[in-house]
Design brief:
alpha/beta; six-stranded mixed β-sheet; 16 helices; 499 residues; seven-stranded mixed β-sheet; Aldehyde_DH_dom; single chain; 23 strands; binds nicotinamide-adenine-dinucleotide; methylmalonate-semialdehyde dehydrogenase (CoA acylating); oxidoreductase; NAD; oxidoreductase activity
């Protein structure tokens, strides 16, 4: 049994708490490694190392910090296959999807190569007589991030790349379900030239998270995961005076207008609903066809596509569309919610229950499900299922469809499929959701824009990556300067505007 480590001060370090979590192989249901769960003392050790290393890193000029990012991009490309394989082995997603996970993180690293430009301040010459005013962005110090299981490469990179490019030290507390890739990323950052102690990985659970939340040295906390934990971390982190951004769960609606290209919409729903077994915060989990005729035609197109989906282990290569879900508990939760859908009167059009894969009977595979006639009061509509289950809610008008997305407590992403520019424009303007797709089912913004939901999908004000990340990981300092030649009239006692 492999015993995984923490990564502290440039070295793999065994856990000392005596507590471990099982890292599963979701395809076989076997335990494949033990992940150490850090104690408060281990977290404090990491924080002390980070605090000692950070000032020297902040003093390195931004161009040199950017060169570490350049080299890191090369190393990610060099090790892409290795990273994807390690990711699939612990997460269960297919290899191309795992490579996409690394790639979407890599693109944010590329953006961070622009740190010298992004960190430039503002300057006002002669703001008053002999007075210049300028502002600069300075690193926060020791920063930390807590990441979910579903993107074990991408989301850590979304946090640590900008944090480190800005001159901070970063402590990553990845998901205990798939911690190997985060450890590999920390090694690669050092191979790229990052000084020891600037990126550390502390594996753990609530105990480690609480230690970070209550540590006075830690200046900021980034979190991505489920909404209940996001709310807890946001509340506790803010109460402790930290800068906090927390990204939570989702229930993403796709509105299908009567004029939409239904083949295109059906294809989009298959990828967005069932890709990665539905374990994406930007997955489409609710299809909202407008009008019964649209709904009937859409279902007709969806069913054969869903029945053709190939579910299996990543090792089966191109023969697989999606893999197992991450744990037995995740599988049980999906099955429980599916049962509530049936009990509460939704129509199960494609029944993925009792899916069985020969040779992988103990794996956490879930067959694809499609529900029709789902209503607002049902549990399968209200809750995030995070599995290969697509719910269809029939709307009788565009306004009703828009209202569904507006009234839902989550507001991460949404999409509209239509040929009508006015409808698309109206939808994008009015809907209270953070990321909108127009004939694009998973509208994940690229690295140089920002990523973030609204409502219960996000707590905080600044989004992930893009320019917001450089704001989140720095503080603004504004300097008003006057040289002695400008002070000729004695003391100033009144607070007054610049002349
Ligand atoms: P999770 O909330 O169970 O875990 C996320 C992190 O929090 C992990 O590192 C975990 O160790 C830690 N954690 C778990 N319980 C904790 C507790 N009681 N106190 C403190 N920390 C705790 O989420 P998950 O199952 O790993 O990920 C899936 C969820 O993440 C879904 O809800 C999904 O929508 C969401 N997600 C959101 C986004 C986004 O950008 N909005 C992106 C990806 C995933």
């Amino acid at each position: 049994m492999q015993e995984l480590t923490h990564y502290l001060n440039g070295a793999h370090v065994k856990g000392t708490s005596g507590r471990f979590a099982d890292v599963m192989n979701p395809a076989t249901g076997e335990v494949q490694a033990k992940c150490p769960l850090a104690s408060k003392a281990e977290v404090e050790q990491a924080v002390a190392i980070a605090a000692a290393a950070q000032p020297a890193w902040a003093a390195v000029n931004p161009q040199r910090r950017a060169r570490v990012m350049m080299k890191f991009v090369d190393l990610l490309n060099r090790d892409m296959d290795k990273l994807a394989e390690a990711l699939s082995r612990e997460h269960g997603k297919t290899l191309p999807d795992a490579a996409g996970d690394v790639q979407r993180g890599l693109e944010v690293v590329e953006y961070c190569i622009g740190a010298p430009q992004l960190l430039k301040g503002d300057y006002t010459d002669s703001a008053g007589p002999g007075i210049d005013m300028y502002s600069m962005r300075q690193a926060l110090g020791v920063t930390a991030g807590i990441t979910p299981f579903n993107f074990p490469a991408m989301i850590p990179m979304w946090m640590f790349a900008p944090a480190i490019a800005c001159g901070n030290a970063f402590i990553l507390k990845p998901s205990e379900r798939d911690p190997s890739v985060p450890l590999m990323l920390a090694e690669l950052m050092e191979e790229a030239g990052l000084p020891k102690g600037i990126l550390q990985v502390v594996n753990g659970d609530k105990e480690a998270v609480d230690a970070l939340l209550h540590d006075e040295i830690v200046q900021s906390i980034g979190f991505v995961g489920s909404t209940a934990i996001a709310e807890y971390i946001y509340g506790t982190g803010c109460a402790n005076g930290k800068r906090v951004q927390c990204f939570g769960g989702a229930k993403n609606h796709m509105i299908i207008m009567p004029d939409a290209d239904l083949d295109q919409a059906a294809d989009a729903l298959i990828g967005a609903g069932y890709g990665a077994a539905g374990e994406r915060c930007m997955a489409i989990s609710v299809a909202v066809p407008v009008g019964d005729e649209t709904a009937d035609r859409l279902i007709e197109k969806l069913v054969p596509r869903i029945e053709k989906l190939k579910v299996g282990p990543y090792t089966a290569g191109a023969d697989v569309d999606y893999g197992p879900v991450v744990t037995a508990a995740a599988k049980a939760n999906i099955e429980r919610l599916v049962q509530t859908g049936i009990d509460q009167g939704a129509k199960l059009v494609v029944d993925g229950r009792n899916f069985n894969l020969q040779g992988y009977e103990d794996g956490f595979f879930v067959g694809p499900h499609l529900f029709d006639h789902v209503t607002k009061d049902m549990d399968i509509y209200k809750h995030e299922i995070f599995g290969p289950v697509l719910s269809t809610v029939r709307a009788q008008s565009y306004e009703e469809a828009l209202g569904l997305a507006m009234d839902h407590e989550y507001g991460n992403g949404t999409a509209i499929f239509t040929r009508d520019g006015d409808a698309a424009r109206d939808f994008a303007n009015r809907v209270n959701v953070g990321m909108i797709g127009v004939n694009v089912p998973i509208p994940v913004p690229l690295a140089y824009h920002t990523f973030g939901g609204w409502k219960k999908s996000m707590f905080g004000d600044l989004n992930q990556h893009g320019p917001d990340a450089f704001k989140f990981y720095t503080r603004t300092k504004t300097i008003t300067s006057r040289w002695p030649s400008g002070i000729k009239e004695g003391g100033e006692f009144n607070f007054k505007p610049m002349e």
